Amino acid sequence: MFEKVFETERSLVRRWCSADLDELVKVYGDREAMKWVGDGRPLSESECREWLVVTFRNYKRRGYGMFAVELKGRPRAIGFCGIVHPGDQEEPEVKYAYLRCCWGQGIATEVLRGLVAYGTEVHGLMDFVATTAPNNCASHAVLKKAGFLPGELFTDEHGDLTQPFLYHATQTPSSKA
Q1: Digit-coded pLDDT (tens) for 13-34
Q2: What is the C-alpha separation between 13 and 115, in angstroms, rounded?
Q3: 69, 81, 90, 162: most buried by Cβ count inside 10 Å?
Q4: Which neighbouring-strand residues pair with 80?
């Protein structure tokens, strides 16, 4: 049985399981989609397998990490979202990636709003960051619609310009995990 984290009007967001490997490879192995992520290189199956291990560790350490996104009534992941701390950075960073066939339908914005609410209400997180390629206009639109504001461009560890987006929750969380 999958462990539900939260749901939105159209989606169910749950913890990863080993059976998600095929979907991870479909999303993160897609060269076109990954041109916007990290160094722009798609991930191999072995890298996706390692990411599962890292995510399971994050669940134990922080209570959160990356999650699978399913459409209600469709029991396969269409993408992934999560709250992570790359390189053990202090501020929580939101990440998301979806199958290209799911782009442009408002799913990413809907799920991102739910993810921020989950992080705030369940884990007491008040500030979030997201990082994008400066030319990734579609992701910028998703972040803005979810309430994130653009920050100052900076040069990342790969020497590429990165556009950060920042979010601050305005209400005190009602509960903490």
Answers
A1: 999 999 999 999 999 998 888 8
A2: 9
A3: 69
A4: 68, 97
Distance set, CA 138 to CA 38, 97, 145 (Å): 16, 12, 11
pTM: 0.91
Stretch (H or E) spanning 69: strand 66-71
Say if residues 163 and 153 touch (Cβ distance below 8 Å). Answer: yes
CA atoms within 13 A on the CB side of 164: 14
Query: Quick check: helix, strand or coil at residue 133?
Result: coil
Q: What residues contact residue 79 under an 8 Å CB cut-off, 6+ apart?
A: 27, 68, 69, 96, 97, 98, 99, 102, 107, 108, 111
User: Looking at residue 34, what is its pLDDT?
Assistant: 83
- Fold classification of 4-168 (topology level): Aminopeptidase (3.40.630)
